[in-house]
Specification:
428 residues; alpha/beta; TIM Barrel; 2 domains; nine-stranded mixed β-sheet; three-stranded antiparallel β-sheet; 16 strands; globular; binds iron/sulfur cluster
Length: 428
Amino acid sequence: MEKKVGIYVHIPFCKSKCAYCNFYSLSSFKGGDKLIPDYQTAVIKHIEEYAAQLDGYLIDTVYFGGGTPSYYGTSRLINILSALKNNGHVLLDSEITAEVNPGSISREELIKLRRAGFNRLSIGIQCADNTTLNTLGRTHTFEDAESTFNEARRAGFKNISVDIIFGLPSQDKDSWAQTIQRIAGLKAEHISCYSLKIEEGTELYTFKDSPFIPDDDTQADMYLYAVDMLARFGYRQYEISNFARRGFESKHNMKYWLGEEYIGFGSGAHSYVGQCRYSFTEDVEEYIEQVGLGRTIVEHDEQMSDFENAGEYLMLRLRTTHGISEDEYYNIYRLKMDFVLELLKKYEQSGWTYYKEGRWKFTPVGFLLSNMLIGELLDAQTRQRTQISKPWQTESAGEDAQMTLFDKRPVAAGLFGGRRLIGRNEFS
Ligand code: SF4
């Protein structure tokens, strides 16, 4: 039987750079636009060259992320989708998403997208306060966002997701509550709700210690408020940052969290195929040149061992409200998780996890602490393995027992910061 796969297409172009964004994207103000025609040619050539590898798969999700795909141009997006259809088996009921920025797409273009088979939009709204949007360098107002949303509905989109961010400069609890109210008023099918992470190299970084940035406690309150209020508005939380009406969970993103296969095209795109993770060069000019010459553009690749996959199972599934199961874990990896279970039970006493119908899951407070907790769970899993392979060595045997495969993983305490765990930009 043919396997199912998701396709991610990266579009690294934006009208301008937002103050908080550390994703690799080229803005029109810095002359990025002149590369667009050659990038389009390269992506299509890349897909055509990959046709043989796509042959064994049924494509059930396609996601155009960025960057700003709507700024890149609908005709180009449609041509890339056609290339995928010509070179792979895109299922008729495939979930096909494009990220859209308010004000960067007209009604006619939305209709064109819908007619070409796009059936889901992800609109980056971020917040309802126009002064804050301006501070962030967003090129739209909340009213623009409402208008784009309504036009998308008129164009026939019945599955729309919106992105919002908390912890923004000068955002207090009242303005966050306003954002939630006004966003809920749009009646989107899906809401992604991220915490602002101030990254080095962004314009906002200079203000990282400013009193105008809500502190961790305030951000934690904002998150828990969102979980509660969105549930009241009918949005079920299914992942740390994602909420949906029943049946509208993002099929594409679920592939990342369930460890399923996906193939990326475009500069900086990540893939996971046959237990191998790989990513392409982020440099757009290099991508265009190397694809044009038929050369390799893989920048990183990593063959995952079974044990690493078992770690990913813990790390990714605990991000979801689907959670993890001892039996499932054993059936897939033939590994016990006694040490992990000990910790999960301890967390349960603190109100961070719960056990239901054979599965362990994080509570909303657990999600807040998930970076730290998942780090501890991965360490526990490694400790168990070390003891099985070296039964003479006790837990206190020292350094070696502490040396983990996951030393590179973030285990810092505090608010979760994992809005971009693998491969794709989650807000734009
Ligand atoms: S946040 Fe989105 S729109 Fe803004 S610069 Fe980054 S990728 Fe572009």
